[in-house]
């Protein structure tokens, strides 16, 4: 019998938007900064297909992949050791490769086309599938943001439940990206490479993550216990969802911008990916960012104001001159620090 890993995270069913669900979401994000979302509308077939496409892509020769290397818009391929998520402790970059889709138009699902290799190019079934997945991820991310707005009791006269989604509009540009990741097995790495992705926080608003059964390795840091905890792969406990062929619950975490924006009521938790004894890991991540020009000024919510009055989060998310930073500039700043080669 395989070992059953304890799940340290809340599982929240987001199929209904109501106060109870909103409070559960807020609680998970205000304590651990991570939770599992169930009651989404991804099928297991879709998620399996997504991973099949990803594997086919990474199986190509290196010479093919680097033809579409990452560009100034953060679209394209990044190779092994190119990205270093923790400069303080890691000398070499992360032993992983990735492909980023970016510059999305979420009215249509289109992304920047120039950086797409033939396997993903417009006109292919893959391109249409990726469009569909990015629209569904945008919709799920927006739903979670609406629940968060309800949980935070954002002032009605300021937009209430729609406050966040008005700043993650489908028709306005953002740094949102969708990323396929591949971490090769330990046997292919140098012995000193013990970490797959260095400890870091994410840059945007929310991160949504698909992982595969048997390929765990993601860990989050619990500061109050000074402990790293495994984020396991879990199945839905709803027999109804399983009967309907729904995919397993999706990992969702708060990133820096939402934390700044809420005087740190929402926690942007440190996380990393560790190396098991063997086996590859594939993950697919949606980094959901606010529209480019959104200023990260504390949001109009009683809960956030009260945290601010206690001095929580004071001085974070500011430019050097003390003005509030906008969503795009913050992400760009973090990208610059992350890429060992700089771009
Ligand atoms: O692959 C994973 O599970 C997580 C990757 C991650 O945290 C990131 O790319 O920001
Ligand atoms: Fe991350």
UniProtKB/TrEMBL annotation:
InterPro entries the UniProt entry points to: DIOX_N, IPNS-like_FE2OG_OXY, IPNS-like_sf, Iron_ascorbate_oxido_reductase, Oxoglu/Fe-dep_dioxygenase_dom
**One Gene Ontology term of the molecular function aspect:** metal ion binding
Kindly state a single biological-process term from the GO annotations of this entry.
small molecule biosynthetic process
Sorted keywords for this record are:
Iron, Metal-binding, Oxidoreductase
Task: Indicate yes or no for the key word Protein biosynthesis.
Answer: no
Keyword check for Aminoacyl-tRNA synthetase, yes or no: no
Cross-referenced PROSITE patterns: FE2OG_OXY
Q: Which SUPFAM superfamilies match?
A: Clavaminate synthase-like (SSF51197)
The lineage's top-level taxon is Eukaryota
Query: What are the boundaries of the signal sequence?
Result: none
Q: Which residues form the Fe2OG dioxygenase domain?
A: 174-290
Q: Which family does it belong to?
A: Belongs to the iron/ascorbate-dependent oxidoreductase family.
Name the record gives this protein: Fe2OG dioxygenase domain-containing protein
